[in-house]
Design brief:
The protein is mainly α. The chain contains 18 helices and no strands.
Length: about 350
């Protein structure tokens, strides 16, 4: 089982790498370095191809040039441009890390933090800026976790909690970091034995529960707690997931809840229930792979090979397959609702 999980992780990371390499190598007139930091931030804020062009331009610049631009210009940008600059660096980091250029990606995360510092130095540490920073810190930590940069993620979370000790998302990020450590136990001697694994799981669960205490409407905290219970065969998994469903508003969160509820039902050999849950999940993400695979498996167990074959053919025939949110979740990565919120802030006045 562990071997299959590692193989799937390698396959997922390979797919991300190919996507990122395409983004970095695609020919475009926009890939020429810009002479203005403000121009790059403004271009990113437009979204779409303009944002992609800004990411390509920033990725092409030497780090010394980027540092100079931040030092000279970041403090003079408007608040909206500063938010755009933070997310420009962040999205560039994601592309670079996915392409295997980890050092450059880590540099971009540091650059984004420098812009955040400039925002507060300019007296813009208002409620909106603080909310943006809190969510960004949790997102950046989870992105580092998803790339297995666990020590850097731990340092960032520790630093962030000194600034915002009551930010629920940071405790979710810390719990997810612990879960990721448990998944790669051969790399960490603290968690190789069962007592070490149990303590790690308990620490992650405690972080998720504390996050729920701080923000009872935070769907991701319930989701991660529910998944942790499921993965450790704790009977409280369904309860946590049902609570997640009660507060979830984002379609991706609801997709994950139904996917996990289907997994519980399948494990308990309630295959008709599992089929319904997986089908609901597919409705929320009709171009995602995981529901098709799960449904094919369940239909086979139920003695419906023709239906299983039909589902396999249907998925193979999809033209535009969606990047499955399950993988971001599974790799300890960010929740997409948070990144959507951050990008929305970066593109608003």
């Amino acid at each position: 089982m562990a071997g299959r999980v590692r193989a799937r992780r390698r396959g997922r990371l390979a797919a991300l790498t190919l996507l990122a390499l395409w983004a970095l190598s695609a020919p475009t007139a926009l890939a020429q370095p810009s002479s203005s930091y403000d121009t790059l931030a403004r271009q990113y804020a437009l979204g779409g191809d303009d944002a992609r062009g800004a990411i390509l331009q920033l990725a092409a610049l030497p780090e010394s040039k980027v540092s100079a631009m931040i030092g000279q210009e970041a403090g003079h940008l408007s608040a909206s441009r500063q938010r755009a600059a933070v997310m420009l660096h962040t999205d560039t980091a994601y592309v670079q890390m996915a392409a295997g250029v980890t050092g450059n990606g880590v540099f971009q995360i540091g650059a984004a933090r420098r812009v955040l510092a400039a925002m507060k130095e300019n007296g813009r540490g208002d409620a909106r800026t603080q909310e943006f920073e809190r969510r960004w810190l949790a997102f950046a930590a989870s992105m580092l976790t998803s790339r297995s940069l666990l020590e850097r993620a731990e340092f960032l979370i520790r630093d962030a909690l000194t600034l915002y000790p009551r930010e629920a998302r940071l405790y979710v990020a810390r719990g997810a970091l612990m879960e990721t450590r448990l998944a790669v136990t051969p790399l960490d001697p603290k968690f190789r034995t069962q007592p070490g694994r149990d303590r790690g799981a308990q620490a992650a669960a405690a972080d998720y529960r504390h996050a729920i205490e701080l923000d009872p409407m935070l769907t991701m905290a319930y989701l991660r707690l529910g998944w942790l219970h499921v993965s450790t065969r704790d009977s409280r998994g369904r309860e946590s997931l049902e609570r997640a469903l009660a507060v979830a508003s984002d379609p991706i969160d609801r997709y994950l809840v139904h996917l996990f509820l289907g997994g519980i039902a399948e494990r308990e050999q309630h295959f008709e229930i599992a089929e319904r849950e997986y089908d609901v999940a597919r409705g929320f993400c009709p171009a995602c792979q995981t529901p098709y695979v799960a449904l094919t498996r369940v239909e086979t167990v139920l003695g419906r090979p023709a239906r299983a074959q039909e589902l396999a053919v249907a998925f193979a025939g999809l033209v535009d397959k969606t990047d499955d949110p399950w993988w971001n979740f599974h790799l300890g990565g960010f929740d997409q609702a948070t990144v959507a919120w951050l990008r929305g802030e970066a593109r608003s006045q």
